[in-house]
Amino acid sequence: MVGMPLQWHRRHAITLSSSLPDNPEDMLLVIQAMKDLVEGFLMTAPEETIAGNVLPFAGKA
Question: What is the pTM (predicted TM-score) of this model?
Fold first, then answer.
């Protein structure tokens, strides 16, 4: 996002920052790990499921 954050972005940032470690270096490491999680996992397209890797979940009838 370019420009100033929206108000709800700021509120979420304040909420998340309350859970960060006290040490600024550790804070930045946690923030980088969160960014990596979002960019590397949450924003990627899911891989096609291979039928051999799927186990059926069925209860007793």
Answer: 0.59
Give residue-wise pLDDT tens across range 8-35.
888 998 999 999 999 999 999 999 999 9
Owner of token pair 């940032």 = 13
Q: Which amino acid is at 46?
A: P
Contacts of 20 (CB under 8 A, 6+ apart): 26, 27, 30, 31
User: How confident is the model at residue 28, as a pLDDT?
Assistant: 96
54, amino acid identity: V
List strand residue ranges (DSSP E) for 1-61, in order.
none
Please state, in angstroms and rounded to a whole number, the distance separating the CA atoms of residues 16 and 12: 6
Q: How far apart are CA 10 and CA 8, in angstroms?
A: 5
